[in-house]
Amino acid sequence: MIKLHDKYFKPFVSAKEIDNVLERLVNEIAKDVGDEIPVFIGILNGSFMLTSDFVKKYPKPCEVTFIKLASYEGLKSTEDIQRLIGITQDLTDRTVIILEDIIDTGNTLKEVHRIFKNEKVKSLKIATLFYKPEAYKKDFKLHYVGIEIPDKFIVGYGLDYDGLGRNLPEVYQIKETQHMTNLVLFGPPGAGKGTQAEFLKEKYNLVHISTGDVFRFNMKNETALGTLAKSYIEKGQLVPDQVTIDMLNAEVEKNAQANGFIFDGFPRTNAQAQALDKLMDSKDSQINAMIALEVDDEVLVKRLLERGKTSGRKDDADETVIRNRIKVYYDETAILKDYFAAQDKYFGVDGVGSIEDITERLSAVINKL
Ligand code: AMP
To answer: Helix (H, G, I), strand (E, B), or coil: what is residue 3?
Structure first.
């Protein structure tokens, strides 16, 4: 990942891929041009790197020149194209091939065609390294296309974001989600995840998602999901993975603009951890840390029985169910410690003490991320 000005970009097309595409374009064009000496015209600034690499590969004599147009302001392709340097040589009866780094709306291309309207060239062909079909709004034919890409902002290999990034030998795409902090609060039932999440979400401006809370909300409202979940929850068992994963995805989607999330009670299985990675990946983001509250079993049982007196939660009222939830945690969930430790993302925190002290301990970990 790279940062240019205020924005984050992720690797998109490698230098090697670009080289392969250029090789293909050069071969196609050389074949079509035959024995003529073409004039390649790079459109400055963006296509300086492309033009240089392209003509180095061109196997026969050719001429190279540039015209300079300006169309981008920041991230937006503007309608207003300025011609800064036009045609500086006689192109009568010449085979002209325009080399464009990218064609998106086609506004620059329109200006190119306007420039050539009165030139008596033999033929005018357009070659572009990148092409955004979803953004293209014109009818001009594109004779040679390198790579079709989605309508997302890219930088590198001549393309810039407000002046930066042109010198990069590969191409980067803007990140969907700019910068998120995503935490997994981990630990056995009764460790204090919910209590701590309430403090941390305020402090770090994150969205707190507790799968247990979402299930309980659904149970209270007697939704189909609630009815299904109830049978598992009341026995202290886990709700099936796919049900839980679909629900979590929906909760994250509801908060698409969040700065980040605190996941509480999720993931609880390997399948859930993998689903979470996939979800984060789709947001161009990742889990930054799993922070585990470590508390002894007997303390947990005592805490949960105590909570059961006021919480109204059936699964907090019965010691057998409580012990089963703790057992399920060790049997099915604790393995996730290894999953996150392998990525250097596991942080254990002593979960015994005052609420404030524990918040401090958690904050110390988060502040270092
Ligand atoms: P909690 O409020 O996190 O203690 O969760 C209460 C109950 O909801 C659990 O004992 C499970 O039955 C169910 N549950 C919550 N989160 C999950 C999850 N990630 N996967 C499966 N079941 C869950």
So the answer is: strand
Q: Does ligand 1 come within 6 angstroms of the Cβ of 94?
A: no
Domain with CATH 3.40.50.300 in the chain: 183-368
Sheet holding 289-294, edge to edge: 207-210, 260-264, 181-186, 289-294, 346-350
**Cα 202 to Cα 134, 199, 259, 319, 359, distances in angstroms:** 40, 6, 12, 33, 12
Nearest CA residue ID for atom 14, ligand 1: 212
Question: For the domain bounded by 183-368, which CATH number is listed?
Answer: 3.40.50.300
Task: Classify domain 2-174 by CATH number.
Answer: 3.40.50.2020
User: Residue 268: CB within 6 Å of ligand 1?
Assistant: yes
Rounded distance from Cα 290 to ligand 1 centre (Å): 17
Residues 362 and 184: beta-carbon distance below 8 Å: no
Residue 99, ligand 1, Cβ within 6 A: no
Residue whose Cα lies nearest atom 19 of ligand 1: it is 266
What are the pLDDT digits (tens) for 50-99? 999 999 999 999 999 999 987 655 566 666 667 678 888 999 999 999 99
- List, by residue range, all CATH 3.40.50.2020 domains of the chain: 2-174
Q: Is the CB of 272 under 6 A from ligand 1?
A: yes
- 292-341: pLDDT as tens digits: 999 999 999 999 999 999 988 999 999 999 999 999 999 989 999 999 99
Measured from the CA of 210, which atom of ligand 1 is nearest? Answer: 3
Q: Is the pTM of this model over 0.85?
A: no
